[in-house]
Design goal:
Number of strands: 15
Protein name: Protein SAR DEFICIENT 4
InterPro entries: NAD(P)-bd_dom_sf, ODC_Mu_crystall, ODC_N
Helix content: 25-40%
Family: Belongs to the ornithine cyclodeaminase/mu-crystallin family.
Largest sheet: 8 strands, parallel
GO cellular component, one term: cytoplasm
Shape: globular
GO molecular function: oxidoreductase activity
Length: about 325
């Protein structure tokens, strides 16, 4: 009987050495259109483990021989972890061979999720933001913010100014300082600003990654030609922009789950601001060219993402196969 190789654990440090935002954007751009239909992903399982914590399971599997994997993301959410100076969310991704069922790898899915979320936003921006965009407004200074900034700059090298807003201005300043120290942003100026309306008005691209339940971005503040990227909300009670922003923009989503999970959209439907059939299209349709992205320099576009097991599986595929390639070269 053949002996299976033991599963590997891919740490945060190893993951950083295996992918970049540029390489993951390229991978998702090439694999999402042909493979997304072959991935089965039932509704996520969510279990309340205490009044302030939950446990989520997000399974998926592929029926394509080009993607011979089964995977699941295991996520814990402990809202009070900030008092312990710990992240509120921790996650592990487990990958199996879909032909034999053998476990292949476990990897840090907290970091993997940050990469894939940012790269999905960047892919949408490639289709929806103005090619000559010069100012990126980053709303929120949490763990996802630096990934979103790097991913957006990857697809829009025309951006020369990044302005960061956070409820706590010190956190915005801290993010700006860290990014400037890390480098890799030749010709880009970083600023922090405590006036939310002013930051939004400046943005050619406005990227939001917060847990807000109160609308932060007001549609009246969006300038002509702006692209609004909404990442933070994933329940009907959460929202990062108001109804006017949704009304003014041509709205796209990462996948169909956004129309039932994202507070900005659920609320807009309930209040008659837009209808579900007015959502223009999803990310795969944009990449394939089945839906037209930006049509003019002055139209406003909105992209709402809630995440998907399909993108998780494709991202884990890239990390694992990069790991195997590196091991084979040694």
């Amino acid at each position: 009987m053949a002996t299976a190789a033991p599963p590997v654990f891919i740490s945060t440090t190893a993951l950083h050495s295996l992918i970049t935002h540029k390489s993951l954007i390229r991978h998702l751009h090439s694999t999402l259109p042909p493979l997304s239909a072959a991935v089965q992903s039932p509704l996520r399982h969510a279990h309340q483990t205490s009044p302030s914590s939950s446990f989520l399971l997000m399974p998926s599997w592929s029926t394509s021989p080009l993607l011979p994997y089964i995977g699941t993301k295991l996520v814990t959410h402990h809202s009070h972890n900030s008092t312990l100076n710990l992240p509120g969310v921790h996650a592990v991704y487990v990958l199996f061979n879909s032909l034999t069922g053998q476990p292949l790898a476990a990897m840090d899915a907290t970091e993997l999720t940050l990469y894939r979320t940012a790269c999905v936003s960047a892919l949408a921006s490639l289709c929806l933001s103005r090619e000559e965009a010069v100012t990126l407004a980053m709303i929120g200074a949490g763990a996802l913010a630096s990934h979103l900034i790097r991913a957006h700059l990857t697809v829009r090298p025309s951006v020369k100014t990044v302005v960061v807003w956070n409820r706590t201005l010190a956190k915005a300043r801290s993010l700006v300082d860290r990014l400037m120290q890390e480098g890799g942003f030749e010709g880009v100026q970083f600023e922090s600003n405590g006036c939310l309306e002013e930051v939004v008005r400046k943005g050619d691209i406005i990227s939001c990654a917060t847990n807000s339940e109160v609308a932060l971005v007001k549609g009246v503040d969006l300038k002509e030609g702006a692209h609004l990227d909404l990442v933070g909300s994933f329940t009907p009670s959460m929202r990062e922009c108001d109804d006017e922003a949704v009304r003014r923009g041509r709205v796209f989503v990462d996948n169909e789950a956004a129309v039932v999970e994202a507070g900005e959209l659920v609320g807009a439907f309930e209040r008659g601001v837009i209808r579900k059939d007015e959502i223009v299209g999803d990310l795969v349709e944009l990449i394939k060219g089945e839906k037209v992205g930006r049509r003019s320099l002055d139209e406003i576009t909105v992209f709402k993402s809630v995440g998907s097991a399909v993108v998780d599986l494709l991202s884990a595929q890239m990390v694992y196969e990069s790991y195997v390639d590196n091991e084979a070269k040694q």
